[in-house]
Amino acid sequence: MNTNKQQHAVTLPRSKQRVIRTPHKRTVSRRSARKSFNIYKFTIWAVLAIALLLVWNQLQAMSPVVPNIPAKDVPPVTGLHPVVAQKKAELVASAKEKGISVVITDGFRSKEQQNALYQQGRSDSGLVVTQVQGGYSYHNYGLAIDFALRTKSGDVIWDLEFDGNRNGQADWMEVVAVAKQLGFSWGGDWEGSFKDYPHLQMDFGYSIQALKSGKRPPVESQP
Q1: φ, ψ for residue 189 (rounded to 5)?
Q2: Residue 200: other Cβ atoms inside 10 A
Q3: Is the Cβ–Cβ distance between 108 and 78 less than 8 Å?
Q4: What is the pLDDT of residues 73-98, one digit of tens each?
Q5: pTM listed for this prediction
Q6: Is the dihedral of CA 149, 154, 155, 160 positive or negative?
Q7: How far apart are CA 93 and CA 67, in angstroms?
Q8: CA distance 186 to 131
Q9: Under a CB-based contact definition with an 8 Å cutoff, are residues 204 and 216 in contact?
Q10: Residue 47 — pLDDT band, cuts 50, 70, 90?
């Protein structure tokens, strides 16, 4: 009797066969690209967030640090800020060395004076010389001056093209250039239709709103 058992391969029905599929190369490639793109986006956003944080910290460090004193408790301003007064004197002296006589026509201006000046060219006769009422001018906080030129005959003029020192340059613009070197900003550079050509100011980074709220530049401030 033959005791060797004949072995037969058992074939399962097709419905019960376990089919193992491997991902298509193209599908894997797309998933990999999508993952890389997401990582790239995250990296970009992270870099931007860090950059913004650094800029914010730098701006905070540059901002003047002053006590937040209620406006009603702040002593009233009665004259030019010491730095502005010093730079004003330097401006006059530097212009004189160039053969230009500068006249400071206005400096600190009270709110009452500002309101009266605002009425000029409106309810009062004369030309409009300011666009702001009391409390909204840097003059009201001792941070601005106005200037004019004096000719050799003693006349005070506001002529932007006058060349009294005969060097081929307008004296007015020579004075403006010196003022900017000293740290002043010029009203002739203002954007918009109204430009205040005699106006020079040092705001020390303070907005009018900050000054109205009671903040003031320290005496040792730099322009």
Answers
A1: -95, 0
A2: 27
A3: yes
A4: 788 999 999 999 999 999 999 999 99
A5: 0.67
A6: negative
A7: 35
A8: 16
A9: no
A10: confident
Q: Which two tokens stand for residue 10?
A: 């058992």
Nearest-angstrom CA–CA distance, 177 and 133: 28
The whole-number average pLDDT for the span 97-122 is 97
Q: Residue 202 burial (CB < 10 Å; 0-12/13-18/19+)?
A: buried
Which two structure tokens, joined as six digits, stand for 144? 């601005």
State how far the Cα of 138 lies from the Cα of 216, in Å rounded to an integer: 12
Q: Which residue has the higher pLDDT, 165 or 28?
A: 165
The residue type found at 15 is: S
Q: How many C-beta neighbours within 10 Å does residue 87 have?
A: 21
What pLDDT is stored for residue 48 in this prediction?
A: 81
Model confidence pLDDT, tens digit, residues 168-177: 999 999 999 9
Q: What is the dihedral of CA 211, 217, 222, 223, to 10 degrees?
A: 20
What are the tokens at 147? 């200037």
